[in-house]
Design a protein that fits this description.
Keywords: Membrane, Transmembrane, Transmembrane helix. The protein has three helices and no strands. By secondary structure, the chain is mainly alpha-helical.
Length: 64
């Protein structure tokens, strides 16, 4: 159970990092500053990582 808690917390952190990257890329795109499109191109998988991590963490905490 401890492994799952750590696993889901890592997924949340990775998902948040990708979310911040998407927001920065979007802001820079609107400002007209060239930036990588990696975060925009992979938005669905990064959102899925964040959701799985958040739901998993919530379920693990709820079970305690």
């Amino acid at each position: 159970m401890h492994f799952l808690k750590i696993f889901f917390n890592v997924l949340v952190v990775i998902g948040l990092i990708l979310l911040v990257g998407r927001l920065v890329s979007l802001a820079l795109q609107f400002a007209g500053i060239p930036f990588t499109t990696f975060f925009i191109d992979h938005s669905v998988p990064s959102l899925a990582i964040l959701l799985v991590g958040a739901l998993g963490s919530w379920i693990i905490e709820k079970r305690k």
